[in-house]
Design brief:
Number of strands: 11
Radius of gyration: 15 Å
Number of domains: 1
Low-confidence stretches: 1-18
Distance between the termini: 25 Å
Order of helices and strands: HHEEEEEEEEHEEHE
Shape: globular
Largest sheet: 8 strands, antiparallel, barrel
Number of helices: 4
Length: about 170
């Protein structure tokens, strides 16, 4: 797998491998974007495929913040971070024909990226949040028909658990 694809595994490529929270239009706008750092940083990635799974070593990558549009780039791939709490962010990126969402937490100088796995949510919570369950290549929690997609995204983010994670450890 090419390095740039591997970098954002949990945010960019996972929609083809497991269920995700998605939308056709961006829910998070440029006015809430933040950058946790302002110079390129190199990270060692560790992957975890569930709460009880061990961390496995992945590749080293460099994430490059773009100060003009407050996004983070890896090659042609772009994602943005939007604060939802102390050192906690929603991540948004465009994959193929829709946006995909994840959660990023900064703990002890490391970044933990968690996928918002649709299958981990209670069906009643999904429906109460205004999301619809759609079967594309995989099961998705689509926010396209929600009355208030932003509120729905926050509701789901507050209940996200389990699923795939990546740990980004800064390389010195």
């Amino acid at each position: 797998m090419p390095a740039k694809v591997r970098v954002l595994w949990a945010i960019l490529t996972v929609p083809f491998l497991c269920s995700c929270v998605t939308s056709k239009e961006p829910i998070l706008g440029p006015d809430t974007r933040v950058l946790p750092w302002i110079i390129p940083k190199k990270f060692q990635i560790f992957d975890k495929n569930g709460a009880n799974a061990p961390w496995t070593k992945g590749q080293e990558v460099t994430l490059v913040p773009d100060l003009n549009d407050l996004t983070i780039r890896v090659g042609n791939d772009v994602f943005s971070l939007h604060p939802i709490g102390f050192r906690r962010f929603l991540a948004q990126t465009f994959v193929k024909d829709h946006y995909v969402y994840g959660i990023v937490e900064i703990r002890d100088g490391e970044g933990i990226v968690s996928l918002m796995n649709c299958e981990s949510f209670d069906r009643n919570l999904i429906l109460a949040a205004g999301a619809t369950i759609e079967k594309r290549f995989i099961l998705e929690c689509s926010l396209d028909k929600a009355n208030n997609p932003l509120n729905s995204l926050f509701q789901l983010a507050s209940r996200a658990k389990g699923g795939m994670e990546q740990r980004y450890v800064p390389v010195k």
